[in-house]
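Let's sit down with a protein and look at its sequence and fold side by side. We need material for that, and I hope you will provide a protein of your own picking. Once you have written the record down, we can walk along the chain together.

***
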Amino acid sequence: MDWMSRMSERAELMGRMLDTLGVNAPELTAKSNKEEVRLAVERCRSCEHSTDCHAWLEAHKDGTSAPMPTCPNAGVFKNWADRM
């Protein structure tokens, strides 16, 4: 996968994860520390578990209160979900 395709895929996965957890991404961006968001994006971009993420998101289409446990951003996503 070329770098542009990987970036696009990861942005989609991160957006879907936030939606699944009930996090409003525009509101999050406005209220959060920009460095925290940038680090989460970087962790997602470099994650090697996109296949697991796709499967987990498919299994939680109706939403959930906890992120995929093996996600490198699980703690950050949980924190954001709790704040929304």
Notes: The helical segments are 3-20, 25-31, 34-46, 50-59, 74-83. The longest helix spans residues 3-20. The chain is about 70% helix and 0% strand. The mean pLDDT is 91.
